[in-house]
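Quick start: read one record
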Amino acid sequence: MDNKLKYFVYSQNSLNTYKSCPFKFKYKYIDNINWKHDDLGSREYYDSLKYGRDFHLLCERYFSNIPLGKIEDKNFNKWINKIKDLLPIKEDNIYLPEYEINLSLGNRNIVAKIDLIIIDNDKISLWDWKTENQEIIYKNAFNRMQSTVYMFLAEEIIRKNFYPGYKIENISMNYYQPALENKPVTIRYNEKLHEENKNKILSIINNIENTNFNNENNINKNINHCKYCEFNKLCNSKAVNYEILEEDIYGS
């Protein structure tokens, strides 16, 4: 195992990075390369990420019962009103915005920061806000590493430790895109899926820890993923298309 992984904290981003391309994992997490162009496409891309983070901050304030003040941005005004209609604050609920949970799984540490957790009667609902315009469908949401890690940690940390009387089937992962006129995409949990998620997470971590990142000839490079990667310029001397970069890794 590479020394840099000895105290490494795994997240859905790092696991998904390795799953997408082990070479990308080496660049990001072993070599610590922060690849960012200073061209128009790069600026627009990173500006869009900041725009999404600003909206997440607004949602955090709403679910923390902090006054929102005057919202100048027309999109933000429309989007936050849609979220208020979808999830009005209920006095008996527990709201945990931007909530971080950590798990020690064997000798591995795993972390997730969830946009919102709602404890409602016997339900544990995880919410994630997506501000991009490309519609998320159920199949893609189900297969996201984000869904795998978030629901696994919610079961291991939240339900088992704090709400053992709740059923695992009452854990859900919800993706909502306020920019679109659609309903949330909801994934329900169960014991079978939990075991599958555990095995998936451990399998990827095991592959990471058994990769010799010092020998580039032995690291797999997923060429099918190159066009979605910010390191395409570094690997293949090809221009980076910021319009199609993988949001699940680089977005919020």
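The two ends are 29 Å apart (CA to CA).
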